[in-house]
Give the backbone structure.
Amino acid sequence: MSLYQARTPAEARSLLPAGDQPVVIVPVFNSYDDVVRCYEAYFRNTPADVPLLVVDDRGWDRRPFEVLREVFAKAAPAHDVVVLEQISNKGFLLTMNDAFEAAGRSDIVILNSDVIVGPEWLRRMREAAYSSSTVATVTALTNHGTIVSVPRRNVATDEVPGGLSVDEAARRVAAGSPRLRPRIPTAIGHCTYVKRTVLDVVGLFDPAFSPGYGEEVDFSQRALATGFEHIVADDVFVFHKGGSSFGRSAAMEKRKFEHEQIIQNRYPYYGPWVRRVAADDFSPLAAALLAARRSLQGLVVAIDGMCLGPLPAGTQIVVVETARALAKRADVHEVIVYTPVQVPEYVSNAFSGQPKITIRQAHGFTPWGGAKAHVVYRPYQVRGNDEVQWLQSVGERVVVNQLDLIAYHDAAYFAADGDWRGYRDLAKIAAFAVDGLTYLSHHSRDAARAEGLLPEDKPNKVIYCGTEHTTLVAETSVRPGGLDELQNGFLLCLGVSYLHKNRLFALAVLAELHELGWRGSLVLAGAQPPDGSSLADEAKFLLEHPALAPYVVTLGMVSEAEKVWLYQNTGLVLYPTISEGFGLVPFEAAHYGVPTLSTRQGSLAEVLPADLPTIDEFDAAAVAVTARTLLEESGAGQKVVDQILEKGAEFTWDRVADDVFEVLMAVTERPACRVAVVRGELGYAFVSEANFANMAPSTSRKVLDVGINWAIAHPALRVKLVPPGSKRQVAVRQGLGRLRRAL
């Protein structure tokens, strides 16, 4: 298209093409290298019908304008460009006011000359601007932009995050953005869309801030006072070199100090407000920045593996396999597994050769003081308030697998009413204080919803277990003690002796089998809980059926090697359970070629094959007939095994990772949960009373803020003690920043 020269705002306005597109304004004062990169990215990533107004503030380096003439002479871009030439250097503020007038009735975009834009940047900025009629300005995310900086929040960096190209960084941020468009106290001038409406209402930049610094804050506060808002386009990332606009000279520091005084006097609320926004970890802005950081880096996940004890069992397998499956994903950058100080050998071996997995040893549930993961996932229920607080210290978002509500519903599993009520209160805290919830089955999630333990808007998902056979230690087979006389082909009933496991019904089935002439034995294997055990009822049954007692073997908790032996030598697994969160036993048994006769109670109706023979009624005589068929007809038993294995192929650890990832992504694009206390059955239940108390500023921090505000209110003394632009001022500011963060 064409390159035009203009000497006045009116002339520039006459040269700018008419249309409904905004006018992009690039103020130029020296900085040739930055300007050329700005031009190139602009022409490549901006629609051709968007006019560019370059404002020449008469710097001594004329190359930024010579290069435009050369480009249009050799290979003209598809854009109209108007250069507004100032007669002399007027400074940023007055130059921009001229540009605002030159733009006529169009919206304008302020694009610093040290900014590089990415694909679709302007379309997304405009969409954000018109997402609400009260939006005045829109600011883009950047690497160097105070409260809109990424990847390090509130910390400017001089490089494109992750070593990416600007275009790739912009694409990633756009693709992963939740488009929260958070509200902020002020426009930030590196890349700002300004609607003409707000210019009509509040006017131009105030010349009191000439030649520059603080003018956008004053403009923004005037706009806010009239009912407008300032938002962030959290789907736009631009690279900002930073420091090029005004430099870092002593004179500049003095000007900054003087202009900050004007802001303080006009808007005494502004400084405290910005500090609150910068420190608020629960805001839409914090969520938008986390989503951008996650998009730029790849998701960093922490896994709570504090349950990883000396020997692997079901929960340990879930932790290890979930971590390994997540680490296989290209969109996961790192998986940090928190373990006890003594890391079991099977854990080290499982993660060996996995470059994305980091083992981090923790001394109990003492809050972590280091950098947080984007999100922490606990694949099992919480057992104490300190665990919730610890999880919050480990990840910026927390997701917990609630497993099931069996104990929540059953007071028989607790020694005293107070213990049960405390457990229920902890379930409420977990439901309301974490950011996302997962469940082992729809049955479990429906139970949570029925109890009011699934907040309406909280991300949640049913995540079934993986059923592929996992061997974390060498798979050996060890006969449990006391079974030397046991004949192979026995019945096996596995599970902790809770009443809901319904082991008493297994005894009744055994009695009916003996009535039918079958003379095999029943092995009951599983740990004894402190409360809610069926062992007394089982003993009473055997007292009443003394002829059956020699055929019943009751084992306590068995090791994995002993469980392997039981599976390898049983003829049929009985699984008469009343309630299950998932129900892994039938799938384990099928791996060893053993059929299972199970109920469809709880989650089992979801996960078992539809046409599988099951315990549909608790009629011991009828169940005994089915059991005898499975025990004595190999074809019938093998069919059950094949059906379960085929169904189990649906429940893979890769599927687990996909489902977990979906929830982790959902919580990292939403504000963090602000709940710290809920009304429970024992009164008020806290995530942590200390943590709740610390939600208010500490006394030390309050004292520090009072001192800072007093110094701001006495500028003469402050100038004398800390001269603007001096090394002392820089040192004091850095020291105060570190002290505030520490407090």
Remarks:
- Residues 199 and 416 are 68 Å apart (CA to CA).
- The two ends are 57 Å apart (CA to CA).
